[in-house]
Here is the input.
Amino acid sequence: MLKLFQRASARAGIKVRYSRGFNPRPGISLPLPKSTGVESDDDLLCIKVETSPQLSDIEQLKTGLSDQLPDGCQLLRVEMAKAKTSFQPCEAAYVFPVKPQCLDLALKSRIRRLLENKTLNIERRTDAKGNVRTVDVRPFLKSIEFDDKNILVKCKISSAGSIRIEEILKLLELSIQNLTAPIRRESVQYQTN
Here is the structure.
Protein backbone atom coordinates (compact mmCIF):
# COMPACT_ATOMS: atom_id res chain seq x y z
CA MET A 1 0.00 0.00 0.00
CA LEU A 2 2.84 2.37 0.77
CA LYS A 3 4.42 1.77 -2.63
CA LEU A 4 1.03 2.25 -4.30
CA PHE A 5 0.55 5.67 -2.68
CA GLN A 6 4.18 6.66 -3.15
CA ARG A 7 3.84 6.09 -6.90
CA ALA A 8 0.38 7.70 -7.05
CA SER A 9 1.73 10.78 -5.22
CA ALA A 10 4.64 11.06 -7.67
CA ARG A 11 2.32 10.77 -10.69
CA ALA A 12 -0.05 13.35 -9.16
CA GLY A 13 2.83 15.81 -8.68
CA ILE A 14 2.57 15.83 -4.88
CA LYS A 15 5.90 16.80 -3.33
CA VAL A 16 6.36 14.26 -0.54
CA ARG A 17 8.81 15.21 2.20
CA TYR A 18 11.66 12.71 2.62
CA SER A 19 13.53 11.84 5.80
CA ARG A 20 17.09 13.02 6.13
CA GLY A 21 20.19 10.95 6.39
CA PHE A 22 22.10 8.36 4.40
CA ASN A 23 19.01 6.51 3.11
CA PRO A 24 16.11 9.02 2.76
CA ARG A 25 12.61 7.55 2.96
CA PRO A 26 9.35 9.12 1.78
CA GLY A 27 7.17 10.58 4.55
CA ILE A 28 4.25 8.23 3.88
CA SER A 29 2.86 5.97 6.58
CA LEU A 30 -0.08 3.73 7.43
CA PRO A 31 -0.68 3.91 11.20
CA LEU A 32 -2.42 0.51 11.14
CA PRO A 33 -1.37 -1.59 8.13
CA LYS A 34 -3.77 -4.40 7.35
CA SER A 35 -2.83 -8.06 7.30
CA THR A 36 -2.25 -9.80 3.98
CA GLY A 37 -5.52 -11.09 2.55
CA VAL A 38 -7.66 -8.71 4.62
CA GLU A 39 -9.77 -6.11 2.85
CA SER A 40 -10.25 -2.69 4.40
CA ASP A 41 -13.01 -0.11 4.24
CA ASP A 42 -11.18 2.31 6.50
CA ASP A 43 -7.44 2.91 6.12
CA LEU A 44 -5.68 6.04 7.26
CA LEU A 45 -2.74 7.19 5.16
CA CYS A 46 -0.46 9.99 6.36
CA ILE A 47 1.61 11.90 3.80
CA LYS A 48 4.09 14.60 4.80
CA VAL A 49 4.22 17.16 2.02
CA GLU A 50 6.95 19.69 1.26
CA THR A 51 4.66 22.71 1.32
CA SER A 52 1.37 22.93 3.16
CA PRO A 53 -1.37 23.31 0.59
CA GLN A 54 -3.77 26.14 1.26
CA LEU A 55 -7.27 25.07 2.19
CA SER A 56 -8.40 25.66 -1.41
CA ASP A 57 -5.71 23.25 -2.68
CA ILE A 58 -6.93 20.27 -0.60
CA GLU A 59 -9.62 19.43 -3.15
CA GLN A 60 -7.02 19.57 -5.95
CA LEU A 61 -4.74 17.31 -3.92
CA LYS A 62 -7.59 14.82 -3.41
CA THR A 63 -8.58 14.88 -7.09
CA GLY A 64 -4.97 14.55 -8.28
CA LEU A 65 -4.28 11.60 -6.00
CA SER A 66 -7.64 9.92 -6.68
CA ASP A 67 -7.01 10.03 -10.44
CA GLN A 68 -3.80 7.99 -9.96
CA LEU A 69 -5.26 5.16 -7.87
CA PRO A 70 -6.06 1.73 -9.33
CA ASP A 71 -9.59 0.32 -9.55
CA GLY A 72 -10.86 -0.86 -6.18
CA CYS A 73 -8.87 1.75 -4.24
CA GLN A 74 -10.89 4.83 -3.38
CA LEU A 75 -9.76 7.99 -1.60
CA LEU A 76 -12.68 9.14 0.56
CA ARG A 77 -11.38 12.22 2.33
CA VAL A 78 -8.31 14.44 2.59
CA GLU A 79 -7.62 16.56 5.66
CA MET A 80 -4.67 18.63 6.80
CA ALA A 81 -3.24 17.79 10.23
CA LYS A 82 -0.93 19.92 12.31
CA ALA A 83 2.78 19.23 11.94
CA LYS A 84 4.06 16.36 14.10
CA THR A 85 0.56 14.98 14.72
CA SER A 86 0.66 11.24 15.22
CA PHE A 87 -2.26 8.86 14.94
CA GLN A 88 -2.43 5.91 17.33
CA PRO A 89 -5.02 3.21 16.56
CA CYS A 90 -7.07 2.26 19.63
CA GLU A 91 -9.87 0.07 18.22
CA ALA A 92 -10.63 -1.86 15.02
CA ALA A 93 -13.75 -3.68 13.84
CA TYR A 94 -13.55 -6.75 11.58
CA VAL A 95 -16.19 -8.67 9.63
CA PHE A 96 -15.69 -12.42 9.17
CA PRO A 97 -18.14 -13.62 6.45
CA VAL A 98 -18.82 -17.19 7.56
CA LYS A 99 -20.46 -19.96 5.51
CA PRO A 100 -24.05 -20.53 6.71
CA GLN A 101 -23.37 -24.15 7.73
CA CYS A 102 -20.60 -22.95 10.08
CA LEU A 103 -22.83 -20.45 11.89
CA ASP A 104 -24.24 -23.17 14.11
CA LEU A 105 -25.07 -23.46 17.80
CA ALA A 106 -21.59 -24.83 18.57
CA LEU A 107 -19.94 -21.68 17.18
CA LYS A 108 -22.38 -19.41 19.03
CA SER A 109 -21.70 -21.32 22.24
CA ARG A 110 -17.93 -21.05 21.64
CA ILE A 111 -18.26 -17.26 21.24
CA ARG A 112 -20.19 -16.99 24.52
CA ARG A 113 -17.53 -19.04 26.34
CA LEU A 114 -14.71 -16.92 24.90
CA LEU A 115 -16.33 -13.72 26.12
CA GLU A 116 -17.04 -15.19 29.58
CA ASN A 117 -13.35 -16.06 30.10
CA LYS A 118 -11.23 -13.60 32.06
CA THR A 119 -8.09 -14.82 30.26
CA LEU A 120 -7.45 -16.30 26.82
CA ASN A 121 -3.84 -17.47 26.69
CA ILE A 122 -2.45 -18.35 23.29
CA GLU A 123 0.98 -19.32 22.01
CA ARG A 124 2.27 -16.54 19.72
CA ARG A 125 5.22 -17.04 17.41
CA THR A 126 7.68 -14.20 18.03
CA ASP A 127 10.32 -14.64 15.33
CA ALA A 128 11.38 -16.50 12.20
CA LYS A 129 13.17 -19.14 14.30
CA GLY A 130 9.83 -20.36 15.64
CA ASN A 131 10.23 -19.05 19.19
CA VAL A 132 6.90 -18.63 20.95
CA ARG A 133 5.58 -16.89 24.03
CA THR A 134 2.30 -17.08 25.89
CA VAL A 135 0.05 -14.03 25.42
CA ASP A 136 -3.28 -13.29 27.11
CA VAL A 137 -5.36 -11.88 24.24
CA ARG A 138 -8.59 -11.45 26.26
CA PRO A 139 -7.87 -7.76 27.03
CA PHE A 140 -7.74 -7.12 23.26
CA LEU A 141 -11.19 -8.59 22.51
CA LYS A 142 -13.84 -5.92 23.04
CA SER A 143 -16.78 -7.80 21.55
CA ILE A 144 -17.77 -10.67 19.27
CA GLU A 145 -21.25 -10.62 17.73
CA PHE A 146 -22.88 -12.53 14.91
CA ASP A 147 -25.76 -12.18 12.51
CA ASP A 148 -27.09 -14.48 9.78
CA LYS A 149 -23.95 -14.20 7.63
CA ASN A 150 -21.09 -12.68 9.60
CA ILE A 151 -19.13 -12.64 12.80
CA LEU A 152 -18.34 -9.08 13.88
CA VAL A 153 -15.26 -8.66 16.07
CA LYS A 154 -14.17 -5.43 17.77
CA CYS A 155 -10.58 -5.39 18.95
CA LYS A 156 -8.76 -3.05 21.30
CA ILE A 157 -5.33 -1.84 20.27
CA SER A 158 -2.83 -0.46 22.75
CA SER A 159 0.89 -0.04 23.28
CA ALA A 160 0.78 -3.61 24.66
CA GLY A 161 -0.41 -4.83 21.25
CA SER A 162 -3.59 -6.40 19.92
CA ILE A 163 -4.98 -9.71 18.78
CA ARG A 164 -4.07 -11.00 15.32
CA ILE A 165 -6.56 -12.15 12.66
CA GLU A 166 -5.20 -15.71 12.65
CA GLU A 167 -5.54 -15.83 16.45
CA ILE A 168 -9.21 -14.82 16.23
CA LEU A 169 -9.82 -17.59 13.69
CA LYS A 170 -8.06 -20.09 15.95
CA LEU A 171 -10.11 -19.08 19.00
CA LEU A 172 -13.32 -19.41 16.95
CA GLU A 173 -12.06 -22.77 15.60
CA LEU A 174 -12.53 -21.54 12.03
CA SER A 175 -10.27 -21.59 8.99
CA ILE A 176 -10.14 -19.52 5.82
CA GLN A 177 -12.07 -22.36 4.12
CA ASN A 178 -15.03 -21.62 6.45
CA LEU A 179 -15.36 -18.09 5.03
CA THR A 180 -17.39 -16.98 2.00
CA ALA A 181 -15.18 -13.95 1.23
CA PRO A 182 -12.06 -12.22 2.55
CA ILE A 183 -12.08 -10.84 6.09
CA ARG A 184 -12.82 -7.11 6.02
CA ARG A 185 -11.63 -4.40 8.39
CA GLU A 186 -14.71 -2.24 8.65
CA SER A 187 -13.48 0.64 10.81
CA VAL A 188 -10.60 1.91 12.91
CA GLN A 189 -10.65 4.48 15.69
CA TYR A 190 -7.58 6.63 16.34
CA GLN A 191 -6.25 8.85 19.09
CA THR A 192 -4.10 11.81 18.07
CA ASN A 193 -1.02 13.01 19.90
Remarks:
- The CA atoms of residues 30 and 44 lie 6 Å apart.
